[in-house]
């Protein structure tokens, strides 16, 4: 009987310890305007997959946004934006790494916007 009581106490203590270590999760939608197709999407997802603490992510090419959920004691929004920028894409207020951007395939580089002069 004593052994069963000790086992129950150990299981209860372990469960309480696991619950105490669980930290708050956070979620954000990051503007990723330079993610223009599935090839770009794959590159961003590959970068986010490597980031420690990210629980889930979804890159929406049509809306040009990336939704990310993470564990707050393992990463934060700035690190996530930096990971996307280090993959060669703009992420909110963090600009893409210019050296990586140059190495992106042409399909992942949006066409430059040229202003057309007004017609007289």
Automatic annotation (TrEMBL):
Keyword Signal part of the UniProt annotation: yes
- The superkingdom of the source organism is Bacteria
Q: Which residues form the HMA domain?
A: 25-92
PROSITE patterns noted in UniProt: HMA_2
Q: Does Signal show up as a keyword for this record?
A: yes
List keywords of the entry alphabetically.
Signal
Task: Quote the InterPro entries the UniProt record gives.
Answer: HMA_dom (IPR006121), HMA_dom_sf (IPR036163)
- Signal peptide location in the record? 1-20
Which CDD domains does the UniProt record give? HMA
Q: What is this protein called?
A: Heavy-metal-associated domain-containing protein
Q: Which organism is it from?
A: Ferruginibacter yonginensis
